[in-house]
Amino acid sequence: MANILEMRNITKEFPGVKALDNVNFQVKKGEIHCLVGENGAGKSTLMKVLSGVYPIGDYSGDIVFEDEIQKFSNISDSERKGIAIIYQELALIPDLSVYENIFMGHEIHKKGLISWNATRAEASKMLAKVKVKNVHPATKIIDLGVGVQQLVEIAKALSKDVKLLILDEPTAALNEDDSENLLELLKDLKEQGITSIMISHKLKEVIAVADTVTVLRDGKTICSLSADKGEVNERDIIKYMVGREINDIFPKRLEKNIGDVQLEVRDWSAFDRKLGRHVVKQADFKVRKGEIVGLAGLMGAGRTEFAHSIFGNSRNYMITGEMFIKGKQVKFTQPKQAINHGLAYVSEDRKGNGLILMQDIKQNITVANLKAISNGIVVNKGKEIQIAEKYRESMNIKTPSIEQKVNNLSGGNQQKVALAKWLFVEPNILILDEPTRGIDVGAKYEIYTIMNELVAQGLSVIMISSELPEVLGMSDRVYVMAEGRLTGELDITEASQEKIMEMATV
Predict the structure, then answer these.
(1) φ/ψ (deg, to 5) at 343
(2) Which class in CATH covers the domain with range 249-342+427-506?
(3) Which residues of the chain have pLDDT under 50?
(4) What is d(CA 477, CA 465) in angstroms, rounded to the nearest whole number?
(5) Are 149 and 92 in contact (CB under 8 A)?
(6) Are 81 and 161 in contact (CB under 8 A)?
(7) Class of residue 15 by CB neighbours under 10 A (exposed 0-12, middle 13-18, buried 19+)
């Protein structure tokens, strides 16, 4: 099968960092080609070069698409050639309709005027092509779930006669069913002759759909693996990604020293005033010193709402029930009160709620505990640098400088900064909401190692996770949530994926 794309000796540098170092990348026409590697390996940068986000002159090397050397100055140039890229953060306009989003900038004209009827009709055909059912083209994007929005993005790409579709972490924010639907769609598009490049950290999904897998590491091409030759397997992909074999994805704790109950809630309910319903119902929950408690459940089960409600981030909630920290009854109406009582919460949305992306690493690490580095008015810059350097070293944050903006870090390093920020407030109880979402297997291992070190020091950790292997691999006990209720509690010795799923679907 002939190549539709060749990228030859692509080199791209940022200040102090060589993001791509003579990368060579070939994609066959009509295949699903997965691009994998640790955060910071250069995957997204390579795709931004291909799509014209980084224009000709910003990099060295050649892009050959359909046997012609291309010189893209912007995304429009690559789109005109039939290349479309869909990012993890969708580029749809929430308050516009589905058909307006699909055909924005290339609406259907008749007699020199936009024909909205024809545009709507064509949008219906595009929705059918991506297997979206029971959604009217006039529906606003804001009224759709994330899974359907992702499919609308693909429909938008298909409306431009796409030949090569690039998807950057397309299933990161999707539940299991929506993820499966998307992967099946990629297979259908392959049957229609459309070539796909998919960046993903979810290796099971990679193995399920990839014809070829290319591994990048530290900005270099390491290898390409063929499914036809039986080369695409999780063990080898991980080995090439991290440069070593990881025999145990979840680091073992040598000894467990689980102590007294640190946090307990009894008959805990949260009524969401906006939604007009309970998001948490009569929950009984506790976590002990030195213990990792997993909180599992399907998307929409109420896990994050539960975390918000006990952390005092509950302006929209009416709370009933009792909460105790170290046996003493407490009541929080704002996060500051929770923090003062030794409770910290690392948000699942590190970019939206966890970090200030345009500020540097040291400012992000110290922002939640400024009183520790100031006299109440002026920040002690020397102390701020000292603290930031301490966490940079202890958490292995990969960066040329603590002055680097967080926006320029890889996902795994951003997550370490978010974790460092809350560790600096010296909590006793730490809530981690989807702590490894969107980060690679090597960075996951480092986060897991940090979690084990924290509980060894006596912290209590509540881990919310949608990945059942992670829940089973890291927890001492597991609570399962469904429709706002805690439907089960399992010691890790009796827990299994089957038991958790049974409790999550009652």
Answers:
(1) -110, 130
(2) alpha beta
(3) none
(4) 13
(5) yes
(6) no
(7) exposed
Q: Provide the pLDDT for residue 244.
A: 63
Q: Report the DSSP pairing between strands 3-14 and 17-28.
A: antiparallel
Instruction: Name the residue type at position 197.
Output: I
CA torsion angle for 487, 493, 498, 501 (degrees, to 10)?
A: 30
Residue 26 near residue 6, CB atoms below 8 Å: yes
Helices 176-191/146-158 angle, 10° precision: 20
Cβ 500 vs Cβ 467: under 8 Å: no
Residue closest to 6 by CA, chosen among 207, 211, 170, 224: 224
User: DSSP label at 78?
Assistant: H
pTM: 0.64
- pLDDT per residue as tens digits for the range 366-397: 988 888 888 878 889 999 999 999 989 888 88
Structure tokens at 399: 């960066």
Distance CA 438, CA 122 (A): 34
> Which of 335, 352, 353 minimizes the C-alpha distance to 344?
335
Q: Is 449 exposed, middle or buried (0-12, 13-18, 19+ CB in 10 A)?
A: middle
Pick the CATH number of 3-242 from 3.20.20.70, 3.30.160.20, 3.30.450.40, 3.40.50.300: 3.40.50.300
Structure tokens at 33: 């080609």
Task: Give the count of beta carbons closer than 10 Å to the beta carbon of residue 107.
Answer: 16
Quick count: other Cβ atoms within 10 Å of Cβ 498? Answer: 9
Report yes or no: 4 and 165 within 8 Å, Cβ to Cβ: no
Residue 326, classified by CB atoms within 10 Å of its CB into exposed (0-12), middle (13-18) or buried (19+), is middle
| CA neighbor of 172 nearest in space, from 417, 439, 475, 364 | 439
The first and second tokens of residue 160, run together, are: 């431009």
Q: What is the structure's pLDDT at 129?
A: 86
d(CA 62, CA 324): 62
Structure tokens at 15: 């200040």
Provide the sign of the torsion angle of the four alpha carbons 98, 102, 108, 113, taken in this order. positive
Give all strands of the β-sheet with 83-86 in edge-to-edge order: 83-86, 164-168, 195-199, 32-36, 212-217, 220-226
Rounded distance between C-alpha atoms, residue 237 and residue 225, angstroms:
9
CATH 3.40.50.300 placement within the chain:
3-242, 249-342+427-506
Using alpha carbons, select from 423, 493, 459 the residue that is nearest to residue 259: 459
Nearest one of 177, 95, 198 to 142, comparing CA atoms:
95
* C-alpha to C-alpha distance for 179 and 172, rounded to whole angstroms: 9
CB count, 10 Å around CB of 488? 18
Helix, strand or coil, per DSSP, at residue 270: strand
Q: What is the pLDDT of residue 245?
A: 63
What does the alpha-carbon distance between residue 219 and residue 18 come to, in Å, rounded to a whole number?
Answer: 7
Two structure tokens written together for 164? 């090569």
Scanning 281-410, the segments in alpha helix (DSSP H) are 303-310, 335-340, 361-366, 381-394
